[in-house]
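fold-stage: in
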Amino acid sequence: MKPLTSPGERTLVPNPDELAYTAQWVKDHMTGLDPTPQFASTCRVALSKIANKELLIDFAPPTVPNHENIVIYATGWAGKFVPLMGRILSDLALDGHTPFDISHFKTGSTYFKAIQKAKH
């Protein structure tokens, strides 16, 4: 399935092929659970055009006023990590650091610099 390029393209109707695939996976791997979709709906996930759809977790770049007090989380698939993400973001916002190694996700600084250069 091709990703949508605009929110206006969404139909709010779940893709029946994706529902069937998920139901089959549940049937094959989750013994005892009814695989019939219940309360099916849709959601939007914004994915960046950054290679590998990497997560960005960092402070706002220096070009943003008050950047040292603004924590950013953007892009990527992270729904299953929401509790951990909340902890990391609150650590950053309240303490300015986190005990978790987020160095891999700080690529946002490089990405945001590229945006700033493109605007000038």
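fold-stage: in (second)
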Amino acid sequence: MGELKPHLSLWRQGLGVVPDELWLRTDLQTLVLADNNLTEVSERVGDLSKLRMLDLGHNRLRELPVSLGRLERSDFLYLHDNRLARLPDSLSRLQRLRYLNISNNAFEVLPEVVTTMGRLIELRVRDNRLTELPPSISRLTSLRELHLRNNRLATLPDSIRAMRELRQVDLRGNPVTSLPEV
């Protein structure tokens, strides 16, 4: 029998439910469960403590397990194209996270927990229902790219001026009426 590889893609396999044996693969560093009509993810996902990248995009998730916060080695988290309106506070433990995609969900407010992810370099929150960003967004001092296309933002908080690494802000498709002075 061959050696198990630490990367597993089950993209577009029509799973509906994640097989229980998957949660035994504690060696995994990359796991792609995108586009599988998933409506839930087991709390056992937190047992995959070596994960560096998790892709749960293109599913039907309305909530996430609290145990996602145990994936403290994660660099990349894809949660786009689901039905999420909130994120568990436990995600504040993902202090290594560099990329977060929560686009195409049902967020009306940027979850406060996102602003605790101080190492984020790229944040994608496109195609949601955001009407404002919290002033605490300025805590994302490493952020370089902020993708906010197709929301309901009329302005940005003045605190965004403190984000010295920010290089790209995509506001297309928002009813922007004013921006903070630079």
